[in-house]
Amino acid sequence: MSIKIAIQGIESYFHHLAVQKLFPNNNVTLMPCDSFDKVTANITNLSADFGVIAIENSIAGSILPNYTLIDRENLQILDEVFLNIDMYLMALEGETLHTIDEIHSHPVALQQCKDYLMRVQPHCKIVEGKDTASEAKRIKEGNLKGVAAIAGKQVAEKYGLKILDSHVQSLKEDKTRFVVLGRNTEASPIEANKASLKFILGHEVGNLSNVLQLLNTFNINLTKIQSLPIPEKPWEYAFFVDVLFEDKELFSEVITMLGKTVKELKVLGVYRQNFENTPSHLIENLVHGK
Amino acid sequence: MSIKIAIQGIESYFHHLAVQKLFPNNNVTLMPCDSFDKVTANITNLSADFGVIAIENSIAGSILPNYTLIDRENLQILDEVFLNIDMYLMALEGETLHTIDEIHSHPVALQQCKDYLMRVQPHCKIVEGKDTASEAKRIKEGNLKGVAAIAGKQVAEKYGLKILDSHVQSLKEDKTRFVVLGRNTEASPIEANKASLKFILGHEVGNLSNVLQLLNTFNINLTKIQSLPIPEKPWEYAFFVDVLFEDKELFSEVITMLGKTVKELKVLGVYRQNFENTPSHLIENLVHGK
């Protein structure tokens, strides 16, 4: 049984690596998409079984538009994985740090390497591209002299580029969290201890402390919170939160209670916390009909 | 007395417009910068008196890296303004909707116009650029055929481009919030009723509900909250919140109390809420030494 997984990036090393961590022993067919929108659209229109997208980063924080996408397309978060993002500066054979006057990468990657760029390459023109890997590919294929890309190490290996400098990101421990998305017909895994919720509060913003108090009372711990204004409804707010819990049954009961106190509640996913990056049981569960 | 204001964007229409709304009667010299970093750096190194940067948007939510910049550079939020962002599709004279096969703009602008692009221009290559206005400029100067830019109306007028379509953004009411930044030596304005705070909580994440309860008890209303993981400190969180208050003195007292209950507290700015986009009194206050 081959599983089709949509990822962002023409040949995006990091999304691909996230898939490899989660599904090392499965027969996976990657479906590269050139935007996060297309990843979620391909899940919805049944072209892909699952999608894997970056959702937050230790420096830039949440990738808020991706939360909106999950919500709008009614997808479910089914699993997660965390990758250490190590960035390398790479260019054509024969280049050195001193021959480079232009550096290309994805905007988020450029931001992660900002300190390095300002310190070591302040004279360089910085160009935002679609993807870390495809910028490297463009340098190789176009034989672009004086141009370097910032990307993962395996990108340099794949396109035969020379590594000019390594670990160029500001934080040596730069973790990015990726989530596995599926259609919301999937059951949540048995080993679940984490959930992503969206709720809307009315005009009394003070209500938020009541909601948090309720979660707190039942040992449901907040690990993340983001408010988003609701564009059509001034003074109303949507909140995206991630929570950890120990008792899945108690969690379900609290969620039912929570639904009675907020204006709108949506569970975006109930899954396992996966800091250790152990492989996903998602596919086995599906195959065995669990 | 001429005031130097740093803005992001080579000739960025929207940041420029924000400055015009805030300082219509002042002698302002714009200092265009090619990144948000350079805006804040120019304030810190005294090259600019103030900076104006976008901080949140009704669709994409908070621009989290800009919060991090304000915090890291120890700047103060001194005022705010909200702009309705109306987007136009523009190209060289002689082009029509049917002759376009490539569309350039800033990534956030492209996201705001995503529905239009997928519906009306699904065949077009979408190219992310540095800035809405500079992409339009490039089309004009490079005489780029078959290429359109998405930007504000005045950009089309400035560079003599033809408007192919108007109001191409998804939400007809797409508001972006801009803030005025200054060095943290400035006193907060007398008419202040809004504040931006950053606080860090320790390992007991449940503490957040206590903090919100404290604010709530004293009628300090939360209008925004974002948690950010602290990269070097797993399980500790920084929160960026915006609050509204009525009594400035009471607010100061609550802040003093708050400082005793959290691990770290920083006031990023105390200013007036400015939904009506009335001109800023910031410069008059400075001139008259208030």
Automatic annotation (TrEMBL), chains A, B:
Question: GO BP, one example?
Answer: L-phenylalanine biosynthetic process
Listed under GO cellular component are: cytoplasm
In Gene Ontology terms, what is one molecular function of this protein?
A: prephenate dehydratase activity
- Pathway annotation: Amino-acid biosynthesis; L-phenylalanine biosynthesis; phenylpyruvate from prephenate: step 1/1
Which stretches make up the Prephenate dehydratase domain?
4-183
Ranges for the ACT domain? Answer: 196-272
Top-rank EC class of the record's enzyme: lyase
One Pfam annotation reads: PDT
Which E.C. number(s) belong to this protein? 4.2.1.51
Source domain of life is: Bacteria
Stored InterPro entries: ACT-like_dom_sf (IPR045865), ACT_dom (IPR002912), Chor_mutase/pphenate_deHydtase (IPR008242), Preph_deHydtase (IPR001086)
Gene3D superfamilies named among the record's database cross-references: 3.30.70.260, Periplasmic binding protein-like II (3.40.190.10)
Q: Does the keyword Lyase apply?
A: yes
Q: Which reaction does it catalyse?
A: prephenate + H(+) = 3-phenylpyruvate + CO2 + H2O
The alphabetized UniProt keywords are:
Amino-acid biosynthesis, Aromatic amino acid biosynthesis, Lyase, Phenylalanine biosynthesis
Q: Provide the site residues for: Essential for prephenate dehydratase activity.
A: 176
Ranges in a coiled coil: none
PANTHER family, A to Z: PREPHENATE DEHYDRATASE P PROTEIN, PREPHENATE DEHYDRATASE-RELATED
**Protein's UniProt name:** prephenate dehydratase
Q: Which organism is it from?
A: Aequorivita sublithincola (strain DSM 14238 / LMG 21431 / ACAM 643 / 9-3)
Q: Lineage of this protein's species?
A: Bacteria, Pseudomonadati, Bacteroidota, Flavobacteriia, Flavobacteriales
